[in-house]
Amino acid sequence: MPVIDNRNADQIAYWNGAAGRCWTDQQQMQDVALAPASAALLAKAAPKAGESVIDIGCGCGATSFALARAVGANGRVVGVDISEPMLGRARQLAPPDTTLNFAPVDFVLADATVHPFAPAAADLLFSRFGVMFFAEPATSFANMRRALRRGGRLAFACWRTPRENPWMMLGLKEAYKYVPKLPPMQPDDPGPFAFASEERVHRILDEAGFAEVQMEPVDLFIDVAAGRGLEAAVQSTLSIGPTSLALENQPAEKVAAATQSIREVLASHLKGDTVPLSGAIWLVTATNPT
Ligand SMILES: C[S@@+](CC[C@H](N)C(=O)[O-])C[C@H]1O[C@@H](n2cnc3c(N)ncnc32)[C@H](O)[C@@H]1O
Is residue 244 part of a domain? Predict the structure, then answer.
């Protein structure tokens, strides 16, 4: 295990346990469902041929491979993540080295808060939903900023509020009809919605030393079925995020009742084999001052 910041220990355990397993099992579906967010973020980050990119919280690697394609054979991509199962999947999915016009991709098991990144070497720090899980985000971002050359760019996507993300909350709402509510989270607690507040993200990035911070709200549809029909949507809703946490270790009959409720609500959104639900993200960009 690499050196970690102990304040991140709970999240690190979570991403090496239940969450890591769910994301790895659901990797193909997640990558289809999150494709609209990837496309928007990649367009915003605008990786260029020959650039060196670090993909923070790269998970199973989909965006690392997209970046490797974008920067081409003269570029370089390093995917950093703290989850062994997810990095294991990323390594399995890696295209053969011989792929033309594809940058080498290295995956590193590390806590981005304390990892000794090669200083001032990267052109772009990138993340699709991988930077909201730090206990002390300003410290983590200050550490990551040191990896960027002067004038280098930061570009990441994070979720806006739970209310604006029914794709993640619809399952939880149904589950709460049958199981107790999860302990209330504070808005700053590490988790998917930790960067919902525009003011907080500005504060964190300013404190970490970034300049030219910009946040663009983008609304999109997330097909929780990933084009595979209603039952696939039910399974992905049950296994990802707060819904899976709420149903963990609950009596089988309650889980079955919640599942049926979720199925009925998702059915009302079914369009062909897709279940498109609204999602809301921030596209955040900044630079390392020159
Ligand atoms: C919501 S997942 C996103 C994964 C991937 N970027 C994607 O979009 O499929 C969040 C990722 O952040 C990683 N992560 C959480 N805390 C981390 C830390 N301290 N250092 C590095 N990675 C971390 C998790 O292991 C997980 O892979």
Answer: no
Q: Which amino acid is at 22?
A: C
pLDDT digits (tens, 9 = 90+) for 148-189: 999 999 999 999 999 999 999 999 999 999 999 999 888 899
Alpha carbon dihedral 268, 269, 275, 277, in 10-degree steps, equals -140
Residue located nearest, by CA, to atom 19 of ligand 1: 111
Buried b / exposed e across 29-64, counting CB within 10 Å, b at 16+?
A: bbbbbbbbbbebbbebbebeeebbbbbbbbbbbbbb
**pLDDT tens for residues 246-284?**
999 999 999 999 999 999 999 999 999 999 999 999 999
What is the 257 CA–ligand 1 centroid distance (Å)?
31
Bridge partners (DSSP) listed for residue 231: none
**Domain count within the chain:** 1
Report the predicted TM-score, pTM, of the whole model to 2 decimal places. 0.96
CATH number, domain at 48?
Answer: 3.40.50.150
